[in-house]
């Protein structure tokens, strides 16, 4: 589960709720491309907007159509009690791993964040990936907190939100993290534009949003890194810069990926859960232009 | 509903879930003090940590024991669909008004925030209070957005997160807001330490956390302002400064009010939903010292 390229698809909706057929079309792209794992109901998979019942259904669908590829599922919620219920649901539905953010409403102390991971880690029977993304969860992890959480049972991976650039700074950062964490912990990079640098700097895997719709482009980048051609990896990242620029422009990747999924014909014109809105016509036209120029259509 | 002193109690839990007896003890303090309205399941009421079923049950309990005092209930959730379900529940349970935050996960555009209020305002049959609190919801309202939302049906009040000080700056701010909003909109101040200044500057009511446990102290402050003795109002605010200092120290009022509710004998020693934690023994002792010195016990 915790190596290679992990693809995070969106979860499309339509007027009736979850658009299951559209979701299966998106999954098909990923199983055909043989990504190494699926990250379902991540931030990009809109977990925060769905009910417990919807999340269970999406997990069941993903596992049933994953063609043997391991599925990781977010169990994030404000309340520890709800997280534990979601973990039980995910395990019963066949998830291979659990993605756990520390979602803050009032701001959590480091002790409260540790307590969340402690309580969940001792209750589950699947490996946990610690989801560190202050932009969405509003929780900051210190390195000391990483180290404490890493000693808990079932903690297998950290999904980190980026690395400093250029490469030597990233290498220093990853080395410093490794020093504080047990050897079995797998470090995964999130934030697609940092992926090449982070993988070259020693991250074990890539938790990728763009792979959730464009798995071949993501594989090309991943393989350029693993082929140990840093020139080629940098060129791949540079090539995709217009896509990263769209992510930055639209406050994250979600609205851009939803627009792209519709442009590729996989979803309805409105496929994001309210109150999220689809991009304007002008912005959608820009997404069309970028993915066409990048050969992603 | 939208005048005077609106008291926001905590919603205590115990090992079994909602601690209904403790909640009723807290309510009794407020009905005995004859506060003007109750704000149930606000941020301080931990709405974000409870399930839909728990929120319905708390609303029913509050309405049944409010002794005729109007009850406002938060219907906040990430998803508009869930907000609409919660609104329907709250209305059926007898809530007099609905408190609606724009809870952001990925960050909401101004258009998305407007869309949320639009969709809910057109679906409900009770007045809505717009909850503006960037610290918990991570949504920023512009004045232009206030003005647009205020034109929607059922929008009755804005709960604003503070005012600039000193008084002339606050007066200028409230006057500027009034100019942009229809005359029927009631402005309520949140953030207890700003209450005296904001009420003197022309706010219509006080949405008060400290009134949720110490209604007589809050009434004394409110009445000092309404008696138009700005000296006396300033003295009341200054008197309570050690309490405001605790709110600032502990990242908001919730953990302090939970500690105080236990110290007053109304709740179990652990009365906050996980992953929230009760204050340490040393911090709890400080809360005890402050409320004793202020005569709040």
From TrEMBL, chains A, B:
<keyword id="KW-0456">Lyase</keyword>
<dbReference type="InterPro" id="IPR013785">
    <property type="entry name" value="Aldolase_TIM"/>
</dbReference>
<comment type="similarity">
    <text>Belongs to the DapA family.</text>
</comment>
<protein>
    <submittedName>
        <fullName>Dihydrodipicolinate synthase family protein</fullName>
    </submittedName>
</protein>
<dbReference type="Pfam" id="PF00701">
    <property type="entry name" value="DHDPS"/>
</dbReference>
<dbReference type="InterPro" id="IPR002220">
    <property type="entry name" value="DapA-like"/>
</dbReference>
């Amino acid at each position: 589960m915790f190596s290679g390229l992990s693809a995070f698809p969106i979860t499309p909706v339509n007027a009736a709720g979850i658009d299951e057929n559209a979701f299966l079309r998106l999954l098909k792209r990923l199983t055909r491309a043989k990504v190494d794992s699926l990250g379902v109901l991540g931030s990009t998979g809109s977990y925060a907007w769905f009910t417990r019942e919807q999340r269970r259904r999406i997990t069941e669908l993903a596992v049933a159509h994953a063609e043997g590829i391991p599925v990781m599922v977010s169990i994030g919620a404000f309340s520890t009690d709800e997280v534990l219920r979601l973990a039980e649901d995910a395990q019963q539905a066949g998830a291979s791993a659990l993605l756990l953010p520390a979602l803050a409403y009032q701001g959590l102390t480091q002790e409260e964040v540790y307590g969340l991971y402690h309580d969940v880690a001792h209750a589950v029977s699947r490996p946990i990936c610690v989801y560190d993304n202050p932009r969405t969860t509003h929780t900051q992890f210190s390195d000391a907190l990483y180290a404490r959480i890493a000693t808990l049972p079932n903690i297998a991976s950290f999904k980190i939100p980026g690395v400093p650039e250029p490469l030597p700074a990233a290498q220093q950062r990853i080395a410093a993290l490794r020093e504080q964490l047990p050897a079995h912990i797998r470090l995964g990079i999130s934030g697609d534009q940092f992926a090449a640098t982070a993988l070259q700097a020693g991250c074990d895997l890539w938790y990728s949003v763009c792979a959730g719709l464009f798995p071949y482009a993501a594989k090309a980048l991943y393989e350029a890194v693993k082929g140990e051609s840093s020139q080629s990896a940098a060129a791949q990242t540079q090539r995709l810069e217009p896509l990263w620029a769209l992510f930055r422009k639209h406050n994250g990747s979600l609205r851009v990926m939803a627009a792209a999924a519709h442009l590729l014909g996989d979803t309805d014109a409105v496929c994001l859960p309210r109150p999220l809105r689809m991009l304007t016509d002008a912005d959608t036209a820009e997404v069309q232009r970028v993915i066409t120029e990048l050969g992603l259509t």
